[in-house]
């Protein structure tokens, strides 16, 4: 049985406890044994090197240098990392080690909750296969991203809320390698109920399974 660890906490506005419960259920349905932790100290545990998958759900907050380095080392050795929205992409803003691992960092969501389109850019990728581009109402994340990411979906900014970014095409879903490990990220899912949007639930589940070490 593959083992996963979910670490949730930080800013409560992203429903980290509810997201952790939902994702735990999805992983258990896929045959994982799931460990739940609520402090960043879990990232320093040497035992995480034996996991198949780690899911951070920890918006903002701080991570100690030793915790970040142990997490990075675990993924570099082959442990998978997967997450969504601010729980992974706006966690630990002062840790460049963590940002290098994830492949991106949130910097803005102009207009806050708005209607926007998610464009599937790699429809033949197993994570996105069968999914169509879709309209979504939530925060449209503007991120600083790693050019090494393999982008699976994007969104285009209209400039309505920040005129200087009109036409900017921004990655929404990506996957990447980090040493021997696989990393998956989706910027979708501001609140827990959004994870039940069929397209979001599908790509998240597939992304976690892709990232997980066999």
From TrEMBL:
<protein>
    <recommendedName>
        <fullName>ThuA-like domain-containing protein</fullName>
    </recommendedName>
</protein>
<dbReference type="InterPro" id="IPR029062">
    <property type="entry name" value="Class_I_gatase-like"/>
</dbReference>
<dbReference type="InterPro" id="IPR029010">
    <property type="entry name" value="ThuA-like"/>
</dbReference>
<dbReference type="Pfam" id="PF06283">
    <property type="entry name" value="ThuA"/>
</dbReference>
<feature type="domain" description="ThuA-like">
    <location>
        <begin position="3"/>
        <end position="211"/>
    </location>
</feature>
């Amino acid at each position: 049985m593959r083992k996963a660890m979910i670490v949730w906490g930080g800013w409560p506005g992203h429903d980290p406890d509810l997201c952790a419960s939902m994702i735990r259920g999805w992983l258990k349905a896929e045959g994982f044994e799931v460990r739940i932790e609520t402090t960043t100290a879990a990232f320093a545990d040497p035992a995480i090197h034996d996991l198949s998958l780690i899911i951070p759900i920890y918006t903002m907050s701080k991570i100690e240098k030793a915790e970040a380095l142990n997490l990075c080392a675990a993924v570099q050795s082959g442990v998978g990392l997967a997450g969504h929205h601010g729980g992974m992409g706006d966690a630990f803003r002062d840790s460049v080690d963590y940002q290098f691992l994830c492949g991106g960092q949130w910097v803005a969501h102009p207009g806050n909750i708005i209607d926007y389109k998610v464009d599937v850019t790699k429809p033949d990728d197993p994570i996105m296969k069968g999914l169509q581009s879709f309209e979504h109402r939530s925060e449209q994340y503007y991120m600083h991203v790693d050019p090494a990411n393999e982008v699976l979906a994007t969104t285009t900014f209209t400039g309505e809320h920040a005129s200087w970014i009109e036409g900017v095409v921004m990655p929404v879903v990506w996957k990447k390698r980090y040493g021997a490990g696989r990393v998956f990220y989706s910027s979708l899912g501001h609140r827990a109920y959004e994870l039940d949007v069929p397209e979001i639930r599908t790509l998240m589940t597939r992304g976690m399974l892709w990232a997980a070490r066999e």
